[in-house]
Design a protein that fits this description.
alpha/beta, 3 domains, two-stranded parallel ribbon, 11 helices, 14% strand
Length: 236
Amino acid sequence: MPYKFVKSAALIAGENHRVGDPRVAQWTPNTAVQEAALAWAVRGAVDWYKRGQQEPPMTDSMVKARDEWRGSNDKIGQWWQESIMDDPESFITLDDLYTSYAAQMRRSGQGMDSKRSFLAMLEQHEVYAQSGAERVRGRHKAYTRSMPAQAEDDEFYRPRSTAIPTVATFVRGVRFRTLDDQRDSEMSTDDRKAAILRSIQAQLMAEGLTLNDLTATAATPNEEEADALDADDLVF
């Protein structure tokens, strides 16, 4: 994929976009620099053909630099991680996806992208491919529509019409994160265990039982199990 260099991070609109180095212009008239750059490119091309036209594995420093760049400039990746979850039973309309993305860009003060650019960047991004999401056109009754849980007083959220036709274009296999998802992601393992225990206790209380009753019931064999026990199995 060829790179396109732009003047600032706010203008990045695709995975192949990079912020250009303004100092390059001053080296352009330098013949020695041009010759060195050409020799470097030719040497790289020769190595590439020798390897059967296969890209070499990324070095640790390259991976680190890529991750740092993505962390600060990957608008699609940041929005997806904060807003979207896998769900094979759900779907999201293209308008709802773009509305959610646009709201986050306004909220963070980042440059806006057109809906067409957003969809192109989304479908090229690895988070989209790894999620199993799929853009389809057809009937959506077999799936549950997911809509963003934006606060009514969120000045950055500007929803479009909520009505959709019976046959529509949508992305299936994903849903928006909910407030419960956010709370779950912020909970520690101990907090989750405590929440599960409280839920079990609440269900037992509704049936007039306690955890001790549950433990005693599980530890006491029924009559058929007791008859099946051999005397040698009873250890005191």
